[in-house]
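Hi R.,

Here's the chain you asked about this morning:
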Amino acid sequence: MTAPDTDPPAAASAPGGRPRPVSAADRDAFDALVKESLSSVRSMAAAWRTGLTALITLVTTGIIVTGRTAIATLAVPWRIAVTLAIGTGLAVAITGLWQALTAEAGARARLHTLDDIRARYASVQAYQVGQAVAASRRLQTARTLVAAALGLLLTGVLLTWWAPAEPATPPAYLKVTTSSATACGTLDSADGGTLRLTVAGTHEPVTIPLASVTNLAVTSSCP
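And here is the predicted structure, written out as tokens:
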């Protein structure tokens, strides 16, 4: 909601350029609008605060329950991207919640005296309008932050859906020694009297007859 201007209603201009007097009804309506402006903005801020609180609670609960499982299988660069997107989204959402709370409750903790209000705002009416304008700006900031937070959170969720999984790393390699050579790689199969190893740098598996094997050893890496 946009609060009314701080100045009292100016007389409208007549078609001939002469100002028209403000009616008593218009003046009373303006006064009522000023009185309701702050409470109206704060009511909207309360609604946004409630929605933001529910959003943060829902997202945080989902991250705690499924977050680790969802990103545990992702490659490290994608895992970092998901963490940054969701973490930044939550931080922005919390900042938006703070802005909504400030718009609802007001930023000043101390009470004004009438002399303070008159010294700074000239009238109580202008003070009410100033407070409504400040609350409206904070509420608009909260709305902008909510939009940014939703975008970041949605990005994080989509990344968990489409990011490639981290390649499976074998727990160990098999080093096979024969009378003529040594091969080291991942064991594919061992049937029909033949070992088949996937060796780095070769397209097809290396086949080794079991009868020629002189030694088998499990190793953590291949030279």
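One quick note: The first helix runs from residue 24 to 71.

Cheers,
M.
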